[in-house]
């Protein structure tokens, strides 16, 4: 088999699955999208990517013909990120999100929509399914199976005053229908329904009170 035949076969495999070829991924640089390893990144043709998006080696975004997936500008998908929209599912990711450091799965199926706002962070083994809404600055951190959760919008996790940050789920376990407000956190240990809602300041007692 010649090199040309080998690459043709590899490209055909991706075409048959609705994925961009390595060559097409390289060309995304012309639109301001950085694909750091076009041979290991898997990206569906139907995905809408904005400028300044970064895809690390191993990042995967799947979206079938009945579904929609859009990634906002400045978002980073780390190598552990897997985003999957199938059967009419819809996934939208805002600006400057950070997804997949330490692993993360975001999955929407028929009749489901997952909305991730600006500067959200999904990391360390988190999984989002069903109808989820994470507002600006919200975070899901740790091996948490989160379904139909709603985390309030606030300031990003880098903001010095935790009272104004977006809602947070952290710990490990199952979260079903959990609602978390601005400046709040649920630190789960198995069943999130049994965990208290706390102020994030509890974990950052020396942080400043900015009141903005």
Cα Rg: 18 Å
Which shape, going by the Cα principal axes? elongated
Q: What is the percentage of strand-forming residues?
A: 35-45%
| N-to-C series of helices and strands | HHEEEEEEEEEEEEEEEEEEEEEE
Mean pLDDT: 96
Structural class: mainly beta
Approximate helicity band:
under 10%
Number of helices: 2
Structural domain tally: 1
> What is the β-strand count?
22
The CATH class label is Mainly Beta
**CATH superfamily, called what?**
Hexapeptide repeat proteins
| Shape-level CATH architecture | 3 Solenoid
Low-confidence stretches: none
Q: Span from first to last CA?
A: 64 Å
What's the structural blueprint in terms of helices and strands?
Layout: H1 3-16, H2 22-27, E1 34-35, E2 42-43, E3 48-49, E4 54-55, E5 60-63, E6 68-71, E7 76-77, E8 81-85, E9 90-93, E10 98-101, E11 104-108, E12 113-116, E13 121-123, E14 126-129, E15 132-134, E16 139-141, E17 144-147, E18 150-151, E19 168-176, E20 179-180, E21 184-191, E22 197-199
Parallel strand pairs: 1-4, 2-5, 3-6, 4-7, 5-8, 6-9, 7-10, 8-11, 9-12, 10-13, 11-14, 12-15, 13-16, 14-17, 15-18, 16-19, 17-19, 18-20, 19-21
Antiparallel strand pairs: 21-22
